[in-house]
Amino acid sequence: MVVDDLDDLQEKFAACDTIAFADLSTQMILVTNSATSLPREGLDNLCAEAALTMGTKRQQFLGTEPSASAVIASRGQIRIFLRAKSEPSDVMCCVSSSDLDINAFLAEAQPLLEKLSSGA
Protein backbone atom coordinates (compact mmCIF):
# COMPACT_ATOMS: atom_id res chain seq x y z
CA MET A 1 0.00 0.00 0.00
CA VAL A 2 1.11 3.55 -0.69
CA VAL A 3 0.82 4.61 2.95
CA ASP A 4 3.16 1.76 3.93
CA ASP A 5 5.74 2.94 1.39
CA LEU A 6 5.50 6.51 2.72
CA ASP A 7 5.77 5.24 6.30
CA ASP A 8 8.88 3.24 5.39
CA LEU A 9 10.48 6.34 3.86
CA GLN A 10 9.59 8.40 6.92
CA GLU A 11 11.14 5.76 9.20
CA LYS A 12 14.42 6.04 7.25
CA PHE A 13 14.34 9.83 7.54
CA ALA A 14 13.07 10.68 11.01
CA ALA A 15 13.55 14.41 10.32
CA CYS A 16 10.53 14.17 7.99
CA ASP A 17 7.23 14.92 9.68
CA THR A 18 5.04 14.71 6.60
CA ILE A 19 5.54 12.86 3.33
CA ALA A 20 2.66 13.11 0.89
CA PHE A 21 1.82 11.82 -2.58
CA ALA A 22 -0.20 14.39 -4.54
CA ASP A 23 -1.82 14.96 -7.92
CA LEU A 24 -1.16 18.46 -9.25
CA SER A 25 -3.83 18.14 -11.96
CA THR A 26 -6.47 18.11 -9.22
CA GLN A 27 -4.28 19.89 -6.65
CA MET A 28 -5.08 17.21 -4.08
CA ILE A 29 -2.99 15.31 -1.59
CA LEU A 30 -3.89 11.68 -2.29
CA VAL A 31 -2.18 9.99 0.67
CA THR A 32 0.27 10.82 3.46
CA ASN A 33 2.43 8.91 5.86
CA SER A 34 0.31 7.77 8.78
CA ALA A 35 2.19 9.82 11.41
CA THR A 36 1.81 13.23 9.76
CA SER A 37 1.01 16.06 12.13
CA LEU A 38 -0.41 18.33 9.41
CA PRO A 39 -4.18 18.87 9.48
CA ARG A 40 -6.18 18.85 6.21
CA GLU A 41 -5.79 22.62 5.80
CA GLY A 42 -2.01 22.29 6.13
CA LEU A 43 -1.98 19.50 3.53
CA ASP A 44 -4.08 21.63 1.17
CA ASN A 45 -1.60 24.50 1.61
CA LEU A 46 1.32 22.15 0.98
CA CYS A 47 -0.25 20.97 -2.28
CA ALA A 48 -0.98 24.55 -3.34
CA GLU A 49 2.65 25.44 -2.66
CA ALA A 50 3.79 22.48 -4.78
CA ALA A 51 1.52 23.61 -7.63
CA LEU A 52 2.79 27.19 -7.42
CA THR A 53 6.43 26.18 -7.16
CA MET A 54 6.43 23.42 -9.77
CA GLY A 55 3.60 24.48 -12.05
CA THR A 56 0.63 22.57 -13.42
CA LYS A 57 -0.89 22.18 -16.86
CA ARG A 58 -3.28 25.03 -16.01
CA GLN A 59 -0.84 27.25 -14.16
CA GLN A 60 2.37 28.84 -15.41
CA PHE A 61 5.44 27.55 -13.61
CA LEU A 62 8.45 29.53 -12.50
CA GLY A 63 11.20 29.50 -15.13
CA THR A 64 11.12 28.28 -18.70
CA GLU A 65 10.44 24.59 -18.05
CA PRO A 66 8.53 22.67 -15.38
CA SER A 67 10.66 21.96 -12.33
CA ALA A 68 11.63 18.38 -11.55
CA SER A 69 12.16 19.32 -7.91
CA ALA A 70 12.09 22.25 -5.54
CA VAL A 71 13.47 22.83 -2.06
CA ILE A 72 12.13 25.62 0.14
CA ALA A 73 13.91 26.34 3.39
CA SER A 74 12.72 28.50 6.23
CA ARG A 75 13.82 28.81 9.82
CA GLY A 76 13.92 25.27 11.17
CA GLN A 77 11.94 23.70 8.30
CA ILE A 78 12.55 22.32 4.82
CA ARG A 79 9.84 21.57 2.26
CA ILE A 80 10.79 19.37 -0.69
CA PHE A 81 8.72 18.80 -3.82
CA LEU A 82 9.56 16.11 -6.40
CA ARG A 83 7.85 15.57 -9.74
CA ALA A 84 7.48 12.07 -11.22
CA LYS A 85 9.26 11.70 -14.55
CA SER A 86 6.70 9.26 -15.92
CA GLU A 87 3.62 11.26 -14.86
CA PRO A 88 4.31 14.99 -14.44
CA SER A 89 1.13 15.60 -12.43
CA ASP A 90 2.30 13.25 -9.67
CA VAL A 91 4.46 14.80 -6.96
CA MET A 92 5.88 13.90 -3.60
CA CYS A 93 5.86 16.57 -0.91
CA CYS A 94 7.96 16.42 2.24
CA VAL A 95 8.00 18.64 5.30
CA SER A 96 11.02 18.11 7.53
CA SER A 97 13.21 19.70 10.13
CA SER A 98 16.34 21.47 8.91
CA ASP A 99 18.61 18.56 9.85
CA LEU A 100 17.35 16.36 6.99
CA ASP A 101 20.08 14.90 4.77
CA ILE A 102 18.53 16.22 1.56
CA ASN A 103 20.75 14.30 -0.87
CA ALA A 104 20.12 10.99 0.88
CA PHE A 105 16.40 11.71 1.01
CA LEU A 106 16.24 12.56 -2.70
CA ALA A 107 18.13 9.36 -3.57
CA GLU A 108 15.43 7.31 -1.81
CA ALA A 109 12.39 9.44 -2.56
CA GLN A 110 12.66 9.79 -6.35
CA PRO A 111 12.62 6.02 -7.08
CA LEU A 112 9.73 5.59 -4.64
CA LEU A 113 7.80 8.38 -6.36
CA GLU A 114 8.32 6.69 -9.74
CA LYS A 115 7.05 3.42 -8.26
CA LEU A 116 3.97 5.08 -6.77
CA SER A 117 3.29 7.03 -9.95
CA SER A 118 3.41 3.89 -12.09
CA GLY A 119 1.01 2.09 -9.77
CA ALA A 120 3.50 -0.71 -9.15
Walk me through what this model shows.
With 120 residues, the chain is of the alpha+beta class. The chain has one domain (2-118): Beta-Lactamase, CATH 3.30.450. It has three helices and five strands. It has helices spanning 2-12, 40-54, 102-118; strands at 16-23, 28-32, 69-74, 77-83, 90-97. It has a five-stranded antiparallel sheet with strand order 2-1-5-4-3, with helices on both faces. The longest helix has 17 residues, at 102-118.
SSE sequence, one letter per element? HEEHEEEH
**End-to-end gap:** 10 Å
Number of domains: 1
Q: Please give the radius of gyration in angstroms.
A: 13 Å
Uncertain runs:
none
Mean pLDDT: 91
- What is the helix content? 25-40%
What fold name stands as the CATH topology?
Beta-Lactamase
Secondary-structure-based class equals alpha+beta
Helix count?
3
Strand arrangement within the widest β-sheet reads: 2-1-5-4-3
CATH class: Alpha Beta
CATH architecture: 2-Layer Sandwich
CATH homologous superfamily (4th level) name: Dynein light chain 2a, cytoplasmic
Tertiary shape: globular
Short structural description:
This protein is of the alpha+beta class. Helices cover 36% and strands 28% of the residues.
Helices, strands, pairings?
Blueprint: H1 2-12, E1 16-23, E2 28-32, H2 40-54, E3 69-74, E4 77-83, E5 90-97, H3 102-118
Antiparallel strand pairs: 1-2, 1-5, 3-4, 4-5
